[in-house]
Every structure is written in C-alpha cells, then in structure tokens.
C-alpha cells in the first residue's frame, strides 16, 4: 500500500483539512432548542454529571498540591506546543527504532485511507465476504469518521468499549467525551441490547452487572478471533516512542495485546516529552474524568517485542486542523486538552442541551472552542458554537491543564462577528441599545429618572417574567424568560428607608 508522505504542515506547510465529524449542518441554537424538549435525556444527564461532579470534588479535596499539579501540567503541555515539530520527529525516530511504522495524515480523508489500506492488507476476508476489526474507544477515530469510512470498503468495525458499543448498537452518536452513552439510562440500554445483539438472553434485565456481562459475552469471540485492532492514544512519549491507552473496563488491554496488527490513530498534540511527565497526568486525569484515584487499566506499548503482543504495529499521526489551531496565538492553548471531560460535567449549558446539540464529536465547553479552532468560525454552523456557553467560568476552574475556556470563547465570538457578521456595518439594534444604556448609566440623575418607571413596568409584566420581546431582545427571550422587574430600585428603597427613620437599624 502506498501511504502519503510525512505531513509537513506542522513544519510550516499549510493544508486545507478534510474534517470528518467536526462539521455540523445545523447551528447549535437550532438543535439545542429541539434537544431541550427531551426530558428523559435531560434527566439522565443531570443524574450522571451530578454523580461524577460529586466524586471528582471528593478526590480533588484529598490532594493538597492539586493546584501545583495543574500548574505543572499546564507548563508541560505548553512546552509540548512550543516544541511540537521537534518532539514529533523525536517520537517518530523512537517508535520506528522499536519496530513500529509511522504514518502522517494531513486530514481525516488521508487518515481514513491509511487505516483502510492497513486493514485490507492484514485482516482476512470472513465468510460474509467482509473484514473485521476491533476498536478501543478513540476520540480521534470518531473525529475522522473512521467507522463510516470503513463500512463501504467492506470492513466492519466493532466497538469494544461498553458505552461506545451502546451507541453503535443503537445507531446513535456519542454525546460525551468520556461517557459516550451518558444520555441513555439502564432501561434504554437493555432495549438496545435486546434489539442489537443476536446472542443476548431474552430475559435480560437492567441491572448494570447483567448488562456488562451481556456485552462481554457478545464481544469475547471478537477479541479472540479478530486479527486487527484500531486504538486511540491518551499519551505518546517522545523520548521512548511509547503509546498509552487509559480505560476502565479492560477492553483496551485486550485490543492492544491480542490481535496480530495494531493501528493507533493519535492527534499530534497528545505527546509528552518524557516518560516521567506521565506522573503528573496520571494524578490529574482519573480524578478529573471519573473521580477515581487511579485508572483501572493503563496500557503501554513501544513498537514490537518478539513473541509478545502484536507483531505489526502502526501509528497514524493526525493533524486535521491542529496546525491551524497551533498557528493561533491564543487558540493554541486548547491543544493542552487531555480529553478528561471535566468541563462538560460542570457546564450548565451542556447539562441541559446535551452533547448532540454541539454537532461535532467534541461537545461541551471544550468542543465549543476546539471545533471552531480546528475548522474555522467561517463555517456557518460551527460559528455558533462559541455562543453555547453562559461564560460562568466553571469549566476553567475544573480544567486540570488550566485552559481558560471562557476567555477563548469570547475571542472566538469576536472572530465570528468580524468574519460572518461584519460588525463594521451601520448601527444595529444591539448597538443602539448599548449606546442608550451607556448614556443612561453614565449619569446618576438620568439613572434615577429611568428607575422611576420600574413600578409601572412591574405592574405591566407577568409574574413569570418577560418573554417574546421584539427585535434583538427576542434572541434572548426565545430561550429564556427575563425576570419580572422589581417594584422599586435600590436607591428608591434606600430613600424610603431613611425617610421612615430606619437608618442604622439592622433589618437582617
């Protein structure tokens, strides 16, 4: 198979990426409005994210040096970003020296072509005239749409992660980085298994251990018979050429040890300079993602070891817009992301709208910045993602590598306005409203005169609050109610208080 030459974009050659599952056809507000009506989904999300938040807070509280760990992780990832071309070449040299094969992919189309060719070379044709491959949960392969690319090539990809299996059997899409089926409850999963598995017990109930056992039985033969596996990677070590997968079920361990051929798709930003750097990230990642002190399964492999594990090992180093983000002076900070999902679990917007509303394979606060950075806000649907946030800052507080997501969102909003809405055009309704507010609030007497109208506004507005306002205000009230105006302003209340001789009294 002829594979593309090394991707030199990271060394300075620009490309236009084929973006895979990064583009959405519909803007976030449009999809979110529909998803908000899914009461069951919102209930599932609220329960799941609330549980994870609670566990994370407990584990973080145990670490007196938590902020020091965050600072160290931030500095380490910044060093990786600053030296990325150098570290990529170092990783390639070490991985090749250990018996592995390195492929460079500029975009999703190129990565899919590489993986498809490798599977066709190494996976036998089965009795159905197709080839089988087992997969470890991987955001990179979701990003490039690998499963969709393999299917017309006569290749069936079997997800082995429990949550990914649920999504696959249900004909669904992931809605969370860490827990792709977080929007499903146990009864929904039971129905998916009954409908999607040929070998499932028809009397299967919704107990978690029974559902997990059903998935193990369904996949066991695939683990033992399939010759090719595809994985992602949480970390790649430039110093040694080692790759690592972190997971909770043991399916990853089976995939990276049993098959004869192992193909890993890794984003170029996933590198760490040395093996020792893992020490900090192995403290941060499990506590931030699942609220655990350590991961149940952490697998490492370095090239090929005769007689032990896969003897044909490949890694595909994926750009797909990462060098675009790298070239952005402020946006490059998003490349520090270690895909822990902590930002999603604290985000009030994600909890209510769900992951599918973001369109991209990367939902939540990190997706709202990462996807536009990789693709550009000139995309009509992706340009709406930076607005999918209340800018409350909870995501920044939770991020283990200290990505300032709210600040990046405001920068992307500004870019969207300049690129897509040409803010230099004549005055808009919003401009006029802001100018009026500035004039009013710059003088106390004017402010006082306007406040005298509050009693009238209070009597005219419904108790439930204002909604359906006209013009630019309608964009706000289309998704939320403006609270009913107060009966009087603070300064009016204070003057009445003084007149009534209450000055100096404690009214608490």
TrEMBL record:
Record key words, sorted: 4Fe-4S, Electron transport, Iron, Iron-sulfur, Metal-binding, Repeat, Transport
Name of the protein this chain belongs to: Lactate utilization protein
One term of GO molecular function: 4 iron, 4 sulfur cluster binding
Single GO biological process annotation from the record: lactate metabolic process
Sequence ranges of Polar residues compositional bias: 1-10, 476-491
Residue ranges, annotated region (Disordered): 1-20, 475-508
UniProt domain 4Fe-4S ferredoxin-type: residue ranges: 328-349
Coiled-coil boundaries: none
PANTHER family (alphabetical): LACTATE UTILIZATION PROTEIN B (PTHR47153:SF2)
Organism encoding this protein: Corynebacterium variabile
Annotated Basic and acidic residues bias: 493-508
InterPro entries recorded: 4Fe4S_Fe-S-bd, 4Fe4S_Fe_S_CS, FTHF_cligase-like_sf, Helical_ferredxn, LUD_dom, LutB/LldF, LutB_C, NagB/RpiA_transferase-like
């Amino acid at each position: 198979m002829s594979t593309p030459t090394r991707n030199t974009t990271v060394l300075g050659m620009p490309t236009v990426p084929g973006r895979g599952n990064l583009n959405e056809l519909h803007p976030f507000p449009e999809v979110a409005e529909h998803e908000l009506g899914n009461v069951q989904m919102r209930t599932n999300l609220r329960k799941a994210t609330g549980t994870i938040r609670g566990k994370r807070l407990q584990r973080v509280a145990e670490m007196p040096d938590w902020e020091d760990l965050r600072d160290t992780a931030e500095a380490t990832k910044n060093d990786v970003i600053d030296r990325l071309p150098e570290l990529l070449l170092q990783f390639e040299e070490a991985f090749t020296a250990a018996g592995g094969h390195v492929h460079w992919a500029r975009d999703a189309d190129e990565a899919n072509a590489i993986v498809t060719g490798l599977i066709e070379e190494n996976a036998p044709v089965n009795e159905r005239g197709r080839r089988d491959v087992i997969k470890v949960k991987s955001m990179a392969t979701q990003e490039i749409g690998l499963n969709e690319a393999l299917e017309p090539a006569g290749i069936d990809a079997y997800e082995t992660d429990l949550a990914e299996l649920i999504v696959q059997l249900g004909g669904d899409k992931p809605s969370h980085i860490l827990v792709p089926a977080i929007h499903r409850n146990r009864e929904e999963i039971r129905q998916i298994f009954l409908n999607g598995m040929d070998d499932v017990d028809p009397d299967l109930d919704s107990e978690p251990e029974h559902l997990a056992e059903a998935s193990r039985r369904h996949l066991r033969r695939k683990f033992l018979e399939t010759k090719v596996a595809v994985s992602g990677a949480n970390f790649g070590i430039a110093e040694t050429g080692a790759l690592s997968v972190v997971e909770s079920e043991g399916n990853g361990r089976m995939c990276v040890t049993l098959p004869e051929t192992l193909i890993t798709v890794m984003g170029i930003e996933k590198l760490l300079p040395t093996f020792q750097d893992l020490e900090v990230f192995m403290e941060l990642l499990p506590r931030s993602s699942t609220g655990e002190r350590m991961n149940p399964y952490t697998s490492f492999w370095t090239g090929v070891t005769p007689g032990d594990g896969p003897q044909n090992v490949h890694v595909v180093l994926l750009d797909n817009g990462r060098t675009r983000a790298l070239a952005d002076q402020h946006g490059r900070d998003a490349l520090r992301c270690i895909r822990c999902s902590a930002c999603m679990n604290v985000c009030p917007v994600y909890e209510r709208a769900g992951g599918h509303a973001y369109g991209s394979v990367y939902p939540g606060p990190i997706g709202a910045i990462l996807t536009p950075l990789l693709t550009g806000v000139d995309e009509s649907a992706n340009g709406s993602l930076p607005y999918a946030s209340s800018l409350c800052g909870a995501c920044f507080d939770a991020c283990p590598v200290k990505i300032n997501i709210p600040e990046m969102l405001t920068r992307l909003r500004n870019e969207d306005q300049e690129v897509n809405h040409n803010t230099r055009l004549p005055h808009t309704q919003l401009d006029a409203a802001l100018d009026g507010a500035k004039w009013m609030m710059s003088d106390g007497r004017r402010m006082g005169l306007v406040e005298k109208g509050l009693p009238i506004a209070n009597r005219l507005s419904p108790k439930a609050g204002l909604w359906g306002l006209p013009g630019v205000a309608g964009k706000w009230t289309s998704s939320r109610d403006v609270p009913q105006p107060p009966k009087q302003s603070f300064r009016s209340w204070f003057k009445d208080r003084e007149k009534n001789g209450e000055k100096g009294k404690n009214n608490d």
